[in-house]
């Protein structure tokens, strides 16, 4: 069975495993107060071109999201997001469990627009009964989105501008940030993101690390007492150096971006092959997530050899599924999938 269900099926890049083994018996202070975490922080600050960035290392994406959102919002405030957003669909109500409402806005491609944010702000403040409602205070986006789409620089600039105008925080979930930054249609980089967002994180779990996310705080409102909140939410790892070491290895020589580019290239190879076969995709993207609409008869044959995830049913005979490549995906596996799809499409009258 070859798995394309997600981008965290494998362990970690060999450079990380080697460095963890080499430093295994060292004694260092705990809770990210060690030299490795400090070195990783310096690397990230340099990449973002922000000496004022406050950087924290957490274990996973859901933990990162609910920690920063609960730290940023007062008890009566909510976070705006796309209806497909991870915090709305795939985090088991983690944000609500921390006492904050997630207000989801409909979007066909997973991306929010500045106009949507402005309309949501007006919908609250123009209502005479707004004090009886959760108050919008933060906008949550991800790059790429849950549908593999990416924000352009102009779109992010517009979102940042409306958030500043309406006194809203802008937070970017970067679980797959590397894959977004390396995609063929991307025109964003880390300094731009750092200049336009109040906070974002660089995801390691889905791009070569055993585990770990690097949360970058830019807005001073978040920085005071954040380590208290991080501890309260279970986010401070006693053996914090395990996180710092991983981000050093990923970022010091550009490995993070090389791994992401590899996954994107293979995903695009699959996308292009599927389009040539006459299959369709509802979201054209150059990231590592490819959504393909395939006849059910072909999917039935594929599922015995390949793992993939279901998105939605299109009609009585077709379903859209996601194939997700990773930093460790082998090109021969993609080629085998393409060959099998080609044969099945040739044999299927529905395709």
Account of the 3D structure:
Helix 1 (14-22) crosses helix 12, helix 2 (35-48) runs parallel beside helix 12 (241-251) and helix 6 packs parallel to helix 7 (153-165). The longest helix has 22 residues, at 255-276. The protein has helices at residues 14-22, 35-48, 61-72, 86-89, 94-97, 114-125, 153-165, 177-181, 190-196, 220-223, 226-232, 241-251, 255-276, 296-302, 331-347, and strands at residues 2-3, 54-58, 77-82, 102-105, 135-142, 169-173, 199-203, 213-217, 289-295, 306-307, 309-313, 318-324. The chain has 351 residues and is an alpha/beta fold. It is built from 15 helices and twelve strands. 42% of the residues lie in helices and 17% in strands.
Topology (elements, then pairings):
Layout: E1 2-3, H1 14-22, H2 35-48, E2 54-58, H3 61-72, E3 77-82, H4 86-89, H5 94-97, E4 102-105, H6 114-125, E5 135-142, H7 153-165, E6 169-173, H8 177-181, H9 190-196, E7 199-203, E8 213-217, H10 220-223, H11 226-232, H12 241-251, H13 255-276, E9 289-295, H14 296-302, E10 306-307, E11 309-313, E12 318-324, H15 331-347
Parallel strand pairs: 1-10, 3-4, 3-5, 5-6, 6-7
Antiparallel strand pairs: 2-8, 7-8, 9-12, 11-12
Helix pairs in contact: 1-12, 2-12, 6-7, 13-15
């Amino acid at each position: 069975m070859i798995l394309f269900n997600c981008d965290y099926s494998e362990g970690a890049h060999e450079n990380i495993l080697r460095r963890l083994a080499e430093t295994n018996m060292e004694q260092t202070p705990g809770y990210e107060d060690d030299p490795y975490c400090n070195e990783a922080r310096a690397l990230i600050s340099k990449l973002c071109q922000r000496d004022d960035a406050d950087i924290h290392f957490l274990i996973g994406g859901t933990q990162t999201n609910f920690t920063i959102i609960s730290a940023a919002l007062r008890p009566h405030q909510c976070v705006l997001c796309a209806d497909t957003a991870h915090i709305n669909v795939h985090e088991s109500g983690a944000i609500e469990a921390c006492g904050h409402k997630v207000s989801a806005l409909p979007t066909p491609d997973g991306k929010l627009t500045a106009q949507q944010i402005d309309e949501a702000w007006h919908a609250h403040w123009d209502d005479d009964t707004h004090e009886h409602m959760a108050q919008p205070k933060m906008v949550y986006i991800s790059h790429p989105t849950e549908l593999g789409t990416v924000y352009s620089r102009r779109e992010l600039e517009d979102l940042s501008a409306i958030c500043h105008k309406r006194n809203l925080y802008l937070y970017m979930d970067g679980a797959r940030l590397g894959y977004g930054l390396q995609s063929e249609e991307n025109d964003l980089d880390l300094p731009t993101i750092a200049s336009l967002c109040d906070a974002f994180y660089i995801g390691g779990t889905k791009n070569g690390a055993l585990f770990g996310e690097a949360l970058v705080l830019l807005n001073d409102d978040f920085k005071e007492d954040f380590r208290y909140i991080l501890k309260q939410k279970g986010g401070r790892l006693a053996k914090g150096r395990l996180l710092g070491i991983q981000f050093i290895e990923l970022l010091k020589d550009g490995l993070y971006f090389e791994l992401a580019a590899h996954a994107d290239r293979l995903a695009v190879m699959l996308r292009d092959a599927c389009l040539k076969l006459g299959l369709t995709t509802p979201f054209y993207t150059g990231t590592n997530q490819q959504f393909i609409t395939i006849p059910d008869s072909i999917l039935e044959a594929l599922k015995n050899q390949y793992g993939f995830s279901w998105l939605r049913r299109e009609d009585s005979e077709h379903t859209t599924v996601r194939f997700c490549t990773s930093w460790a995906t082998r090109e021969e596996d993609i080629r085998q999938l393409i060959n099998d799809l080609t044969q099945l499409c040739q044999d299927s009258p529905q395709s």
